What we know:
The chain has helices at 4-19, 24-32, 37-41, 45-51, 55-68, 90-102, 107-115. It is mostly helical. Helix 1 (4-19) packs parallel to helix 5 and helix 6 (90-102) crosses helix 7. The two termini are 30 Å apart.
Amino acid sequence: MIPSELKADVKRSAERLYAKKPDWVTFYREILGMNGLVRQACPTREMLNAFEQTEAFDEILQMLARLREKGPLAADEDEPTRVITVRLPKCLHEALRSEAFDHHTSMNKLCISKLLQYIDGEKVAVEI
């Protein structure tokens, strides 16, 4: 359980940063990143999972989505771009491509959107 005061503090801080109109990467890093405000406020996996299920977290994700609509990022020496390769079956690739088309976006933007969403631990395959 996350205290309502903590949720409100995190949300207010995110709103203050959002009002400054940062690029989406800066917002993500400062609020949701590994050393960001949310992880500082929720140091355990249990607390983080609980926060990710709150309305405050959903509103922070909505702010992030609006910032991402601004367009491409300028090169940033402090936050270099990394590339990952994901192996997936052709049917999933085709479904992603179709979904991106339906949303009038690129597959890259769609995949980033999906990566930013809360994932219930029960939906993650565990390697044995």
